[in-house]
């Protein structure tokens, strides 16, 4: 870590394209400004830490919710080895059930 003493208005260069400027000094606080290309992200460390903590908490919560859903789905399934009853189409007395092989289709009649 490089440690420097700077006065109001003085600058520090980071690489060729980042400039840090001391804007103001008040008591135990220092205001600084950053000039950097648009593609360079500049964030306060406490904000980055808070976002990481929130993301970790959300991921853990989602994992717990997913585990809960998997558990519920497993409970809803029938245990292996027990076959589900076969479903049959309902029949009515007015519809007799055909017996024997199905009838053969008749060929179309030739047109004259």
Write the layout of secondary structure elements.
Layout: E1 11-14, E2 18-26, E3 29-35, H1 45-76
Average per-residue pLDDT, rounded, comes to: 80
Listing every helix as H and every strand as E from the N terminus to the C terminus, the arrangement reads EEEH
Form type: elongated
Strand order of the largest sheet: 1-2-3
Structural class, by secondary structure, is alpha+beta
Number of helices: 1
Helix content: 25-40%
Radius of gyration, in angstroms, nearest whole number: 39 Å
Low-confidence stretches: none
Strand proportion, as a percent range, falls in 15-25%
Reported for the largest beta sheet, the result is: 3 strands, antiparallel
| SS elements, strand count | 3
- Termini separation: 103 Å
Quick recap of the structure?
The chain is an alpha+beta fold. It contains 1 helix and 3 strands.
How would you explain this protein's 3D organization?
With 112 residues, this protein is α+β, with helices and mostly antiparallel strands. 29% of the residues lie in helices and 18% in strands. It has 1 helix and 3 strands, in the order E-E-E-H. The chain has one helix at 45-76; strands spanning 11-14, 18-26, 29-35. A 3-stranded antiparallel β-sheet has the order 1-2-3, with no helix packed on it. It starts with 10 loop residues before the first strand and ends in a 36-residue tail after the last helix.
Write out key terms for the chains shown:
3 strands, 112 residues, alpha+beta, 29% helix
């Amino acid at each position: 870590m490089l440690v420097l003493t700077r006065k109001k208005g003085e600058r520090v260069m980071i690489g060729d394209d980042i400039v840090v400027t001391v804007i103001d000094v008040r008591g135990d606080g220092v205001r600084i400004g950053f000039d950097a290309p648009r593609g360079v992200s500049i964030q306060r460390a406490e904000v980055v830490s808070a976002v990481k903590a929130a993301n970790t908490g959300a991921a853990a919560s989602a994992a717990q919710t997913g585990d809960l859903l998997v558990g519920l789905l497993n409970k809803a399934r029938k245990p292996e080895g027990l076959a589900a009853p076969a479903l049959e189409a309902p029949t009515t007395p007015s519809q007799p059930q055909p017996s024997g092989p199905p009838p053969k289709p008749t060929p179309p009649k030739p047109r004259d």
